[in-house]
Amino acid sequence: METEAKTGGIWIYAQTQGEKLHPVVYELLGVGRRLADELSCPLGAMLADCREALVEELFEYGADEVCIFEHSLLSQYSTDGYTKAVEQLVRERQPFALLIGGTDQGRDLAPRAAARIKTGLTVDCIEFKIEGKHTLCQIRPAFGSRLMAEIVTVGNTVSMCTVRPGMFAPAVSVAGRRGKLWHCSLELLPSEIRTRVVESEPEEYEHRDLACARVVVAGGMGVGGREGFELLDKLSKHLGGVTGGTRPAAANGWISHEKMIGQTGRIIAPELYIACGISGAVQHMLGVGGAKCVVAINSNPDAPIFETADYGIVADYRQFIPKLIEELE
Ligand SMILES: Cc1cc2nc3c(=O)[nH]c(=O)nc-3n(C[C@H](O)[C@H](O)[C@H](O)COP(=O)(O)OP(=O)(O)OC[C@H]3O[C@@H](n4cnc5c(N)ncnc54)[C@H](O)[C@@H]3O)c2cc1C
Asked: What is the CA radius of gyration of the chain?
């Protein structure tokens, strides 16, 4: 069954991070532009949090249209408020597809919004293709990455999906490129937002989003405890990365659960993945399939991780990492 590409085009959700666009937005603009060109339809970007200063940037990175919401209750993210904004966008602009970054915020917003709009949601997409004239095929790993599922949203509704960060090349900026700006008004009452932000603090280094990190240093049971993870944190900081770990490391409380990588944890796609004291169990490695370069440090030369690593270092991490940090310093 073919869905008609509506004139509403491809839309992306432009998440912000402080005063800037979130890095995943440039990747969404990259893939969104490609799809819009293939379908000969416009590319739109939804900016929910009233940051007009970012509109020009969205145009320069490929958006033909930007829809900005102007409501004081949207100046800060809330699931309820932003769900209503997405619902409004879909009603007004009738997108053919809406792409949302698979960040912490995107993974919170997308299922709620999809349920509200009464459409399906394909999570963790790593590729898209256009089939026939108007069918968007959303591709994501399934059954523990043993196969790639090709999912099509049927019916007269928006194809909604989250996109795995790090999978698509960011869009390239064209200085001076302009598009059409829509100001969207929204009826939203304070009572509709059921959560209240009591206090906010700048993100601690260790809570940065693992899914978007360019460098991840991860530890497993071989790290032996929290002190070992402090050493890994030190290396992460030197490399501008984020620390993660295996399920047993999380189960032992050496890292928080949101830092757990693998089949039942986070799926990551960094440029560089450094695995310390990790055996390389299939359930863990399913989470790092998108890593461009895997470096394994393990004291056991027969550890299975060496079969998939690009670089293998047979060493005790407690001796190797301090030397590496020394070199970096
Ligand atoms: C249904 C299911 C889902 C699962 N989901 C996940 C998941 O999402 N993520 C996940 O990670 N696991 C998951 N697991 C668990 C997984 O099967 C493995 O048990 C786990 O990944 C192993 O963790 P590890 O590598 O930290 O520990 P181990 O397998 O114990 O490996 C420790 C490694 O450290 C090395 N080592 C020891 N000392 C040192 C040292 N000083 N220096 C360097 N190397 C050293 C050892 O040689 C060894 O290779 C799942 C399991 C099941 C059944």
From this structure: 21
- Taking Cα atoms as reference points, which of 166, 160, 181, 140 lies closest to residue 83? 160
Pocket of ligand 1 (CB under 6 A): 220-222, 246-249, 260, 262-265, 277-279, 281, 283-284, 287, 297-300, 303, 316-318
The Cβ-side half-sphere exposure at 126, using a 13 Å CA radius, reads 15
Q: What percent of the chain has pLDDT over 90?
A: 78
**What is the length of the chain?**
329
Q: How many CB atoms lie within 10 A of CB 308?
A: 16
Per DSSP, what are the bridge partners of residue 275? 218, 296
Report the relative pairing of strands 242-245 and 10-13 from DSSP bridges.
unpaired
Evaluated on CA atoms 184, 33, 16, 140, the torsion sign reads positive
Q: Residues 3-33: pLDDT tens digits? A: 445 568 999 999 998 899 999 999 999 999 9
CA 278 / ligand 1 centre spacing (Å): 5
Q: Report yes or no: 275 and 282 within 8 Å, Cβ to Cβ.
A: no
Torsion angle, alpha carbons of 35, 39, 44, 45, to 10? -20
CA of 274 from ligand 1 middle (Å) equals 14
Query: What is the DSSP code string of 120-156?
Result: -EEEEE-EEEEETTTEEEEEEEETTTTEEEEE---SS
Give the residue-averaged pLDDT of 77-96: 96
∠ at Cα 136 (140, 127), nearest 5°?
Answer: 35
| pTM of the full structure | 0.76
Beta strands per DSSP E along the chain:
10-13, 16-17, 20-21, 43-47, 65-69, 97-101, 121-125, 127-131, 135-142, 147-151, 159-163, 180-184, 215-219, 242-245, 272-276, 293-298, 311-314
